[in-house]
Amino acid sequence: MNCNYITIEREYGSGGTKIARRLARECQIPCYGEEILEEVAKRKGISVERMQQYEEKATNSFLYTLVMMGRAQAGNSDMLTDEGAIYLEEQTEIQRIAMDGKAIFLGHCASEALKERKGVVKVFIRSGDSEEKHRRIAEDYGIEEKDIAATQKFYDRKRANYYRANTSKNWKDFNNYDIVLDSAALGTDGCVAVLKGLLA
């Protein structure tokens, strides 16, 4: 298979962002995560923090999802909530970026934006070792031990709700992905090696 794009969803504390950034450096292709938010925020004239607040307001209500997807498919952006409008802007930005060539995308339901394109590999990165995950969260984000569990739960729930609200799919249903990697078992090196083979 000719792999042109890798989309990555990841558990908080799995090291997925580090893996994606390192993969991009070694393969000399761009990686987009927060850059998508930054570009949309600049275009809309609002702050990245405000964008993140919109994402946090996304709900996992199935009824909400049906309404939002129906409006989006009808092309009526005026009827969308602020959260729905931001999602469409992000999807448009991902599609625009993809026109420039091979890339890695972190989050933002990128696989949905690229579902009509060829050469897309959908990846989920998890960590099966809770101790390893907690260590990463403490080291990478400077979270105090007493706050780690709550912080992890908050971000995983936020990502799951955003994914569900905008795709109607379960974020942790591994049937949605082509590859599921356990960063605790494989390590950063192992995960990068697996994904690098796709882009060779």
Short description:
58% of the residues lie in helices and 12% in strands. It is an alpha/beta fold and 200 residues long. It starts with a strand and ends with a helix.
Structure overview:
By secondary structure, the chain is an alpha/beta fold. It has one domain: P-loop containing nucleotide triphosphate hydrolases (Rossmann fold). It has helices spanning 16-27, 34-44, 48-56, 62-73, 82-98, 110-113, 130-141, 145-167, 183-199, and strands spanning 5-10, 31-32, 103-106, 120-126, 179-182. A five-stranded parallel sheet has the order 2-3-1-4-5, sandwiched between helices. Helix 1 (16-27) runs parallel beside helix 9 (183-199) and helix 4 (62-73) packs across helix 8 (145-167). The N and C termini lie close together (11 Å). The relative contact order is 0.22.
As for the number of domains, it is 1
Radius of gyration: 17 Å
Secondary structural class: alpha/beta
Number of helices: 9
Strand content: 5-15%
Low-confidence runs: none
Distance between the termini: 11 Å
Strand order of the largest sheet: 2-3-1-4-5
CATH homology group: P-loop containing nucleotide triphosphate hydrolases
Q: Rough shape?
A: globular
Number of strands: 5
Largest sheet at a glance? 5 strands, parallel
Helix fraction, binned, reads 55-70%
The first-level CATH class is given as Alpha Beta
Give helix and strand order, one letter per element, not per position: EHEHHHHEHEHHEH
For this structure, the CATH topology is Rossmann fold
CATH-scheme architecture:
3-Layer(aba) Sandwich
Average of per-residue pLDDT values: 87
